[in-house]
Structures are given as C-alpha cells and as structure tokens.
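Note on ligand handling. Small-molecule inputs were canonicalized before submission; formal charges were left as drawn, and no protonation-state enumeration was performed. Where a ligand contained multiple stereocentres, the stereochemistry in the source SMILES was retained. For NAP, this procedure yielded the string shown in the input block below.
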Amino acid sequence: MKTAGFIGCGHMGGALAAAAARAAGGEEILTADRHPEKLETLQNACGTIPASLSETASDCRYLFLGVKPQGMKALSMEIRETLSSRKEPFVLVSMAAGITLETLRSLFGVEKIIRILPNLPVSAGEGVILYAASAAVTAGEEEGFLALMRSAGLSVKLEESKIDAGCAVTGCGPAFVCLWMEGMIDAGVRAGLPYQAAKEMTVRTFLGTAALLQKTGDDPAGLRTAVCSPAGSTIEGIAALEKSGARFGAMEAVTAAYLRNKELGKN
Ligand SMILES: NC(=O)c1ccc[n+]([C@@H]2O[C@H](COP(=O)([O-])OP(=O)(O)OC[C@H]3O[C@@H](n4cnc5c(N)ncnc54)[C@H](OP(=O)(O)O)[C@@H]3O)[C@@H](O)[C@H]2O)c1
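Structure output:
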C-alpha cells in the first residue's frame, strides 16, 4: 500500500501532495485528477505518481480529497464502492470547506476521517492546517498524518465546532493581511518610494515582524511598545491608526468572516 493518495490536485490538493511528497518521497504518493496535465506537473516537480481514481482510492493509507465542496457528492458516488471493499485500515482526509465529519461519514461510508482546513500559504511551506479527527482515528494514524503535513506549515488540532472561528483567522487572514500591505505600499509610493521598493520593504517588514514574534514568543503589544520611542514617529503613526479604527477594523473583519463561515456551514 502507498502512503498517501490525492484525488483532486488543483491549487490546494496539489500543494498538499507536494508537501506529502517532501515528507514521504514522491514514489509513495498517488495522484488522480480529471486533468492529466496537473498530475504531470506534480510528477515533474516532486516525483509523485499519476494514477486512476480507483487505484488511488483503493491503495493508499491516507486518502486526501481535494475536490471542491460541490463536487464531493459526485466523487462519493464514484469511489464509495471501492472504499467499502477495502480490507486494510485507511484514513480519509477531506479539505472541503464546510463539509462536516458527520456528512463525510455518511457520504463515503468511512469511519476514520480527518477534516482539514489549510490556508493558501501551505504552498510556500508556511501555512496553517486546522484539523479535526473522528473518534475512530488512532493516535498513531494522527501522528502519521501530522508527519505527512509537516513541510506544509503548522498543523493545529481543534474541536470541530471551532473550525469556523479558526478559519476566519487563518483561512481568511491572508486576504486581510494583503489589504493591509496594499495600504502600506501605496503610502510608501505616496511618500516618494518606487512601487517595487515599497512592495519589497513591506513584504520583508511583515515577514520580519512575524519571525521575531515567533522567535521570542512575545505578544504583539510588547513588540509594538518596544518600537515606539517617546515623542517619536512610530507613536504618531500608532495614534493615526487608532484614530482610524484599524484595530477594531481587524476585529470586525475576522468576526464578519466567522459569522459568514457559520452561515455557509448551515447550507
Ligand atoms: N484554495 C484554497 O485556498 C482552499 C483553502 C481551504 C480549503 N480548500 C478546499 O480545497 C478543495 C480544493 O480547492 P481548490 O481551490 O484546490 O480547487 P481546484 O483548484 O478547482 O482543484 C480541484 C481539482 O479537482 C478536480 N476534480 C473535481 N472532481 C473530480 C473528480 N471526481 N475526479 C477527479 N478530479 C476531480 C478538478 O477538476 P475540474 O476543474 O474539472 O472540476 C480540479 O482539477 C476544496 O474543497 C476547497 O474547499 C481550498
């Protein structure tokens, strides 16, 4: 049996298949998709093995499903019989946003399921993968899953009911950060910097700030205080941010995304 298989190798499935290949070796990863060119690209980049839908569904210890949520029902009809005929234990890993463990269990007829919510930075190895596991997944199987995903970024286990909240921070967060970056770049250009320079400086400032917080374990408030010298320019900028409601804006954005996630989950 192969270590992992990926059905649906688009943006997210492809990025996670590449991460799994880095962990287990490409020859241990089967990939299936309606578009052979996506499988070829992955094979050339990481040595994964293109396979049919049924081979992938029948021969992998971890079976990742990377199709869009609206395609999950059709996929379940295509592979349910193959899954039910399997003798050895295997774990189904679904990345479909909004599809619960319970729905997955009834669609695919499988008890061992890990539901994941990866964010886009997994494709740079700096992502966050939120996950919830069904009771039938053993500690050893969970360890195996974590090992496969290690090079994609940080995996965080949550109660399933907290995934909507986590997703508002990690899944939607990259878009919020980008909007903030756009503002900083524009301001740099307004103050006379060339666009490219302003962009590189902004990206590096975000990277550096995040790296420092990660290294020290400090709270953001501590780092901010350390940067603000008395009567200096940074505290003037902070006053302008507070006046514009930036902090509350960030809270509103995450809260709005959370409420929308909950609403989408009901449909
Ligand atoms: N992109 C993100 O940032 C993100 C974040 C979190 C979670 N997710 C989840 O990740 C999943 C994939 O999203 P994505 O953005 O990677 O989608 P995507 O780029 O459209 O990739 C999905 C791939 O699966 C193929 N496919 C669909 N049904 C298939 C089937 N029955 N057999 C074989 N191949 C099939 C699709 O082909 P066709 O195009 O012909 O249908 C497409 O190539 C979704 O469930 C989404 O909720 C994505």
